[in-house]
């Protein structure tokens, strides 16, 4: 079994210095800290969790605040949660998953309980009532998502504004002139959920720049709602030839509804989705898509939080650029080919 003295010997420091690096009780030079951390990794040293918590007055637990609100697609949420849990374990931390509506009172209760060292907060709204409290709490926090006013907060997410723009740009380059965004269920927009609002804003702004006709419609992920939404869309916009779907469970239902309405993909309708790669790849017609990088966002959120716990500087905002993968569902507009 590797001991702390083994780590100290390999790093060329005293055992107490290794303890200080682990506990954060004293300021250690960056070079020494890197040397100790490298020795820990190379030797596979795993300090006793109880001893570490006692020495550092920490619980070695992170709270993941992931309210299971209506309209949110659970499988994607769990990809975030899995990445957070896996990365946290790499830092000898466990994760307390909070799935209830943790408003201001809930966050204050968690912070006062001494159960956790830090917070990761999901399902961020543009006017998020939790933001002022997160700025004031003694616990460090990272938000997966951006409120409208993000000053004083540490936030990370896919750049959803750029995502909407990227989808429209792809369709514009293929010659499409009338496009629609079929988005999350209505309640997601009604709450002011950041990712939905930002995608719609980017989509609309880009369509305006390209001189395209565009519309944004929310959609419930049911077969009846998908058919009703498509029928309404084609009635109001008979020249429609391009669609962006930002609603994972509704994607196959909307594709089916378009086909039932006589729209072939991609001959009559080019389809782009914002969704996990596996969903796009396994569709009946593989869908051109911008991937949701849930694993990367979850991992980097934990890394940001661990840096904050160890008093290392972090950027206030981390926006991951969208990456569009072209597949069989998009093609030049027929009249432009």
From TrEMBL:
Could you tell me what this protein is called? LacI family DNA-binding transcriptional regulator
Provide the alphabetized UniProt keywords: DNA-binding, Transcription, Transcription regulation
Annotated Gene Ontology MF terms? DNA binding
Q: Could you tell me which species this protein originates from?
A: Streptomyces spirodelae
InterPro entries assigned to the protein according to its UniProt record, in alphabetical order: Cro/C1-type_HTH, HTH_LacI, LacI/GalR-like_sensor, Lambda_DNA-bd_dom_sf, Peripla_BP_I
Recorded hits in Pfam families, A to Z, give:
LacI, Peripla_BP_3
Question: Please, which domain of life does this record's source organism belong to?
Answer: Bacteria
Sequence ranges assigned to domain HTH lacI-type in this UniProt record = 2-56
Domain HTH cro/C1-type spans what residues? 5-32
The signal peptide annotation in the UniProt record is: none
Return the Gene3D superfamilies for the record: 3.40.50.2300, lambda repressor-like DNA-binding domains
